[in-house]
Amino acid sequence: MSARANGLITCPHCGKPVLNDEPRSRTAEALEVLAFLNEKTGRNYRPVEANTKLIRARLREGATVAECRKVIAKKCREWRNDPVMAQYLRPATLFNATKFAQYVGEIV
C-alpha cells in the first residue's frame, strides 16, 4: 500500500488509486484482504467498490484482517478443488454478512 502526495491510497495489486469515504486504515486493510484472496485463488479481483465494500463492511463490524485471511484460507482448502464450490471463492460470497459470520464461526 502506498500513499500519493495528494493522499490517495493505491492498490498493492495494480497500483491504481482507490477512492472512497472509509478511513485510510480500513481501506488499506480491505485492499490487503482482497490481495490475499487473489493470491490464494489465483484470480484477479480488482479493487473496485463492488469487491471492497463487503470487506470494509465486515471490518467495520469488528472483523480483523487475520479473521478475514483465516476464512479465505479455510474456504480455499475446502473449495479449491471442487468444481461446483470453487466458483464461490469470491468477495460476494465470502464477505456476505450472514455467510461471513458463519465462516468465522467455523474457524478453530
Short description:
The chain is mainly alpha-helical. It is built from 5 helices and 3 strands. A hairpin with a 5-residue loop joins β1 (2-3) and β2 (9-10).
Structure description:
By secondary structure, the protein is mainly alpha-helical. It has one domain. 55% of the residues lie in helices and 6% in strands. It contains five helices and three strands, in the order E-E-E-H-H-H-H-H. It has helices at 24-41, 49-60, 65-79, 91-94, 97-106; strands spanning 2-3, 9-10, 17-18. It has a three-stranded antiparallel beta sheet with strand order 1-2-3, covered by helices on one side. Helix 1 (24-41) packs across helix 2 (49-60), helix 1 (24-41) packs parallel to helix 3 (65-79) and helix 3 (65-79) packs across helix 5. The model is unreliable at 1-6 (pLDDT under 50).
Q: What is the alpha-carbon Rg in Å?
A: 14 Å
Count all strands and give the number: 3
> Helix amount, in percent?
40-55%
List the uncertain runs: 1-6
Domain module tally: 1
SSE order, as H and E?
EEEHHHHH
- Kindly, what is the distance between the CA atoms of the first and last residues, rounded to a whole number of angstroms? 30 Å
Q: Determine the number of helices (DSSP H or I, runs of at least 4 residues).
A: 5
Quick one: overall form?
globular
Q: Report strand %.
A: 5-15%
Mean pLDDT: 87
Strand arrangement, major sheet? 1-2-3
User: What class do helices, strands and sheet pairing give?
Assistant: mainly alpha
